Amino acid sequence: MWFKGGHMKKYLLLVFAVCLVATLALAADTTYTTKFYVQQGGDRAVVADGGSLDVESGGEIDVESGASLKLAGTAVTSTATELNKLAGISGDVITTTNTKTMTNKTLTSPVINTPSVVQSVAFHNYGASSADWILSATEQKAVLLWVTNAGATSDIIAPEEARMFFVYNNSGQSVTIKKSGGTGITVADARVAGVIYASGDYVRLTPDGAF
Question: Of 77, 165, 179, 210, which has the most beta carbons under 10 Å away?
């Protein structure tokens, strides 16, 4: 078949276009799917699973008044000022309305209006022996040291620091509370006495009292 003049050019252009479309179709990556798209209608942009939205240095996201920022479907109601107060804070935040137990914290000039003081008791059964009762870190926090069942004159070894204890001696023997290597104070059987650490050892606050 022979073509003349402009017909030949049109034919060649048509063949070229068909070949180009076929080549592009074969080269297309059919596995590619976008991770960021605008839904049909244009009122919602979506970052799909595996995608990300990155704000580069100097950029910002501005949620204007009346709009909301949601996390897992829940609106964040805190103001920017409230959120900025948390900057640099690690650990738990204690507010004026919640209850929190604080351990090893230093309070500078606290004002306690209605204190609730728990005066704990540490119990020790000598088991009919006279081995020293060396107060553990937990036992050292007690106010009352209650001893029972001593096999002979026995000792309570208390910390060498500012402490106050009441010794309730129901052991059947006399019991001495002292620092390690000290002389301390001896409390008779069936008696209770208050002691305090001062001048390098434990001294009396009260005489022995019956119970």
Answer: 165
